[in-house]
Design brief:
alpha+beta, 2 domains, 7-stranded antiparallel sheet, DUF1905, AF2212/PG0164-like_sf, YdeI/OmpD-associated family protein
């Protein structure tokens, strides 16, 4: 994958934060928070089992510790849940956020204000839309999500806005 040395390459137990809607995660104590980033998150790339992670953020969990959130789509793909052991290999990710060409083309086919609105969002806000689109299982769903994103951008709405 790369000549860069992995910052983590071992097995971890998947855990779940208590309560309804609690996140499933792997605690990664070997990696320290990055004080230069918001909330101390650290951007990584790598693998959880055979699932490739790109431009993924380790999130803070208190006391200077970080965790790797494991979304439902990833858990379904690797067929693992809280209580299971996963193999995690991570590298620091210093690559710039790349907007997929097909999404860029769709945005550029709209009035310029749509693309400008998208570009005005933070990298994380842009990535939330892109992840949502590409988490779709079927092409029709992906297309309808692109249309919905464009309609929301027309109103200046970020992915998490109501």
């Amino acid at each position: 994958m790369t000549s860069q040395k992995a910052i983590v390459n071992k097995e971890y137990l998947l855990k779940k934060f208590p309560g309804k809607g609690g996140w499933t995660y792997a605690e990664i104590p070997e990696i320290s928070q990055d004080k230069s980033n918001p909330f101390g998150w650290v951007r990584v790339r790598g693998f959880i089992d055979d699932y490739e992670l790109k431009q993924y953020k380790l999130m803070p969990m208190g006391e200077g510790k970080l965790f790797l959130p494991v979304k439902a789509a990833i858990r379904k793909n690797i067929k693992k849940e809280a209580g299971d052991i996963v193999s995690i290999q991570l590298f620091l990710d210093e690559t710039p956020f790349l907007l997929p060409e097909e999404i860029k083309e769709c945005l550029l086919n709209e009035p310029p204000s749509i693309y400008e609105t998208f570009l005005s969002f933070t990298e994380g806000e842009q990535k939330a839309y892109i992840d949502w689109i590409y988490d779709a299982k079927m092409e029709d769903t992906k297309v309808s999500r692109i249309v919905e994103m464009i309609n929301r951008l027309e109103k200046g709405l970020k992915y998490y806005d109501k």
